[in-house]
Recover the amino acids of this structure.
């Protein structure tokens, strides 16, 4: 199986409560970075009945690969064990050198029915193109985060984001550069602007790039997952998940980063 097929089959085994397939596809010392799930494969398997009782299902919207990492955009339903009935997540799985699932990171947020742009948190293109531009687009995404969201050169926003088209899937922000500017002005007026402090990982396949960053919002530490779609050297679409980094009730000590 390809790495994407391994990940897809493993996710299916989780949802179907199929420990045999999970043991076949994953390492016994499977490393877990979801703060509420214990690390190790067997402790994870022991949690499967909770998902079965709730009828938890997942729909994969997008799946991309960068080396040994497979990153996904998913919708979870009947997902109260994760915090809400319907959740949107980004999941990252690392495939080990032995070809088995070795490590998992994610961030989740509640699905919002009505958004500022009228788009959903997950709709839009799903297939990667421009595979020869992966590294260029990864560098663009990293620089975008550093200059715009970390504030190094905020006036360069049009060097990274298209002024003609910017489809926005953050439920609180409208489309286009004007939507970003309006959101920044409002958050700044509330003294509650997002603060990005560190980029932990940049993963890409063609015109899609996912960045995983650390920062603050609402006076609390947050993890920021931002997925960008690029065209002709500019970001034309954006999806994200923002999740508070918990300090209590942790099921493991691996942290939400550690790439």
């Amino acid at each position: 199986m390809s790495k994407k097929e391994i990940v897809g089959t493993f996710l299916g085994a989780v949802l179907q409560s199929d420990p045999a397939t999970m043991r076949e596809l994953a390492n016994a010392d499977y490393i877990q970075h979801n703060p509420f799930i214990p690390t190790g494969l067997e402790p994870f398997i022991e949690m499967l009945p909770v998902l079965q009782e709730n009828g938890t299902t997942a729909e994969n919207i997008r799946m991309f690969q960068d080396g040994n990492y497979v990153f996904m955009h998913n919708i979870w339903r009947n997902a109260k064990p994760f915090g809400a009935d319907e959740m949107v997540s980004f999941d990252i799985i690392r495939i080990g050198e032995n070809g088995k699932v070795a490590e998992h990171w994610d961030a989740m947020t509640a699905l919002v029915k009505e958004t500022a742009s009228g788009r959903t948190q997950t709709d839009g293109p799903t297939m990667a193109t421009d595979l020869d531009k992966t590294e260029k687009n990864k560098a663009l995404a990293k620089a975008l985060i550093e200059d715009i969201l970390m504030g190094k050169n905020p006036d360069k926003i049009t060097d990274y984001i298209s002024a003609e088209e910017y489809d926005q899937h953050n439920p609180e922000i409208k489309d286009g550069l004007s939507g970003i500017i309006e959101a920044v002005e409002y958050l700044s007026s509330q003294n509650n602007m997002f603060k990005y402090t560190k980029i932990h990982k940049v993963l890409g396949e063609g015109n899609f790039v996912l960045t995983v960053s650390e920062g603050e919002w609402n006076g609390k530490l947050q993890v920021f997952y931002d997925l960008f779609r690029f065209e002709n050297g500019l970001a034309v679409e954006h999806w994200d998940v923002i999740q508070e980094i918990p300090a209590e009730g942790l099921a493991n000590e691996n942290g939400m980063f550690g790439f």
